[in-house]
Amino acid sequence: MSGRVLVGVKRVIDYAVKIRVKPDNSGIVTDGVKHSMNPFCEIAVEEAVKMKEKKLIKEVVAVSCGPQQSQETIRTALAMGADRGIHVEVSGKDYETLGPLQVSKIMAALAKKEDAQLIILGKQAIDDDCNQTGQMTAALLDWPQGTFASEVSLEGDKIKVVREIDGGLETIKINTPAVLTADLRLNTPRYATLPNIMKAKKKKIANVKPADLGVDLTSRLEVLRVDEPPQRQAGMKVETVEDLVGKLKESGKV
Amino acid sequence: LPSLTMHPVMMGLFQRALRLRTSLRHLCLCSTVSTKARLPLAALKSPFLNFGSCREQHVGAVGSKSLPDGAPKRLPFSRVTKEDVDFFKKILPGRTITDPDLVESSNVDWLKSVRGSSEILLRPQTTEEVSQILRYCNNRNLAVNPQGGNTGLVGGSVPVYDEIILSTSLMKNINSFDDISGILTCEAGCVLENLSLYLEDRGYMMPLDLGAKGSCQIGGNVATNAGGLRLLRYGSLHGTVLGLEVVLADGQVLDCLSTLRKDNTGYDLKQLFIGSEGTLGVITAVSILCPPKPKSVNVVFLGCETFECLLKTFQLCKGMLGEILSAFEFLDSECMRLLNTHLKLANPISDCPFYIVIETSGSDPNHDSEKLHSFLEEAMTTLLVTDGTVATEEAKIKALWSMRERVTEALTHDGFTYKYDISLPVERIYQLVTEMRQHLGDRAKSVVGYGHVGDGNLHLNITSPAKDPSLLAAIEPFVYEWTAKFQGSISAEHGLGLKKRNYIYYSKQSQAVALMGHIKALLDPKGILNPYKTLPDKLR
């Protein structure tokens, strides 16, 4: 199978950063906070670049939906080996309410416009943990989906996908064009090497508006309130076994 | 010479020290001759030169309770009696530890290379308690070994014999932090990493960082004038420590805990204690100036073909990244091999003879990344650097740093390690590694070089499957003589401790060492504070 692969990359708050809730509980603080590429999206990019290195596909196009800063995320994908990028500009209120439904509509529209044969996404984003975009995109395009992929092999015009499921591993074979979502064990993303970082600066990032793709960004969801998880209560130290049993009885646990 | 009323033992030693000076002038002449020259037999036999026993400084196979070989003889301190234990139990209830299993870990150093036979571990919580302990020990002539995180690499943090271990681990309060000036005041037992976390929450950071940060304590850092990865940017503890509270050998509390940035009123006493390795006083509190936490940190991992390219990269780096450069470290391909083999850490880039870790810290991500990218482009187009990668996300930054920070750990898996921490003119740094490799041939398993090349500090490490006296004989005094030849330091940042105390003359004039002896005698006439460490045997 040759052709074009679209890889979705999302700009999220870096996973090592401590999250703080806004004082008015309307959301989390994002200003001045370190952002980076969603780890599962990194794995998706790595998989696409690997396929290109094996000459199984021709071109890797990195796509990100968001404000100006999303371009940095696309640059990272370019430095890892993607050929070009598409920045779908969404900012302000629209960006705050942007969710899997809108993104999957955008991805579906782009797939048609770019004549893509394969879409690879991360299985979920670490900020909202929705795990929906891949599945919705496949449904909108009426394409088969290989989600939670821990192993992918292209066999002619079919794809064999080993999926991580609750009971273990499930192997399926799907037709192309298809949507894949990457799980943790699919691969180990490469470090972007300097020569590639330099090359990436010259690669093109096209700018597109959702309206140009005929996508309506209205959200059907409204966030009412965001709260921090309850503080962990300190435990209690006891000196003897008798104390322990006594306390357990007191609190009604025994 | 100042006339001091000295302990009679000290007087005798002091006079011997005068004779030592003459003998050593003779020795210094010898050591500037080629390393292959034999020292005159008479000199070797002289009791003052003691170079025979220097070879056996890696004392005591762990596990042996017998007299450590090559160690100094036990000085005539008193031995701990039941009355002493009762006294300590009274002032430190529940914190006077005599159970051998519990004392054991404080008797052995981190490298598991030296072991003492102390039977008592004290854990004071306040300066007053430390004062009471020292006053009592001074009166009773009991030796004391101050101990912080016990992460030192020269055997300075554990007892040699039955010295009482005085641990600062329970003195871990942060007293105050001024977020306008960035001045932190805390007790000596605070773990460095905990201080970093505390400060990071407030937009600041500690001015020093080392691999042992999860265990080392600030009191110990100050007592050893710890260097580390950020010295290049923030300077040494001699500059960043603003004040100290120290308990002297006789129990007096010396309060120099100032929080002033500038104070030129009299002699700056705290400087004496910084780097004194616990031999002049026990540090109980520290006030330190902390820099603001940078908003933007980048870490770059580069590969170079030759050490010359590495040095040119350093010059280019200083020129183009100057104000934002916060670390410049190197490791060689042997280090990478050990990281791959023992810790299963994969090389982030392709295999190269030399690797550099560069860190930039600044207040504006755009400004810093622009500067960094110009520098990287220049380095790549002029072929100074053959490969590399950049990280801005915390997880990747940690991963790249671990390639440098975990070399010490990887070495412990390679066998018995002989560690040398040398300061040299920067262009000579790798020459010592190559010459050592040639000199040792197959006698050594691995010979690696890494370190703070930006500060001219090499960590030369040699491994062998087991402790090997003949290998040690080949390494020492070759390495020290080589260092002395280029006016380097035989201990750049690790200190002298037990293992290197007798090599001080390779890097310091005997007059200077004699003056150190006077100061020691003045502040600790009975010599109870961390005996057998830092100053050479023949000066006692």
Automatic annotation (TrEMBL), chain A:
One Pfam family cited in the UniProt record for this chain: ETF
Molecular function via GO: electron transfer activity
SMART domains listed in its UniProt record: ETF
GO cellular component terms, A-Z: electron transfer flavoprotein complex; mitochondrial matrix
Classification via CDD domains: ETF_beta
Example of a GO biological process term: fatty acid beta-oxidation using acyl-CoA dehydrogenase
Keywords: Electron transport, Mitochondrion, Transport
SUPFAM superfamilies given in the database record: Adenine nucleotide alpha hydrolases-like (SSF52402)
Domain Electron transfer flavoprotein alpha/beta-subunit N-terminal, first and last residues per copy: 25-217
Localization annotation: Mitochondrion matrix
Statement: the UniProt record of this protein carries the keyword Mitochondrion: yes
Stated family: Belongs to the ETF beta-subunit/FixA family.
Description of how the protein assembles with itself and partners: Heterodimer composed of ETFA and ETFB. Identified in a complex that contains ETFA, ETFB and ETFRF1. Interacts with ACADM.
PANTHER family attached to this UniProt entry: ELECTRON TRANSFER FLAVOPROTEIN BETA-SUBUNIT, ELECTRON TRANSFER FLAVOPROTEIN SUBUNIT BETA
Described function: Heterodimeric electron transfer flavoprotein that accepts electrons from several mitochondrial dehydrogenases, including acyl-CoA dehydrogenases, glutaryl-CoA and sarcosine dehydrogenase. It transfers the electrons to the main mitochondrial respiratory chain via ETF-ubiquinone oxidoreductase. Required for normal mitochondrial fatty acid oxidation and normal amino acid metabolism. ETFB binds an AMP molecule that probably has a purely structural role.
Record protein name field: Electron transfer flavoprotein subunit beta
Automatic annotation (TrEMBL), chain B:
Domain FAD-binding PCMH-type: 114-293
Catalytic reactions on record: (R)-malate + A = oxaloacetate + AH2
GO molecular function: (R)-2-hydroxyglutarate dehydrogenase activity; FAD binding; metal ion binding
GO CC list: mitochondrion
Class of the enzyme per the UniProt entry, highest EC level: oxidoreductase
Gene Ontology biological-process annotations: malate metabolic process
Principal place of residence: mitochondrion
Name recorded for this polypeptide: D-2-hydroxyglutarate dehydrogenase, mitochondrial
Organism of derivation: Menidia menidia
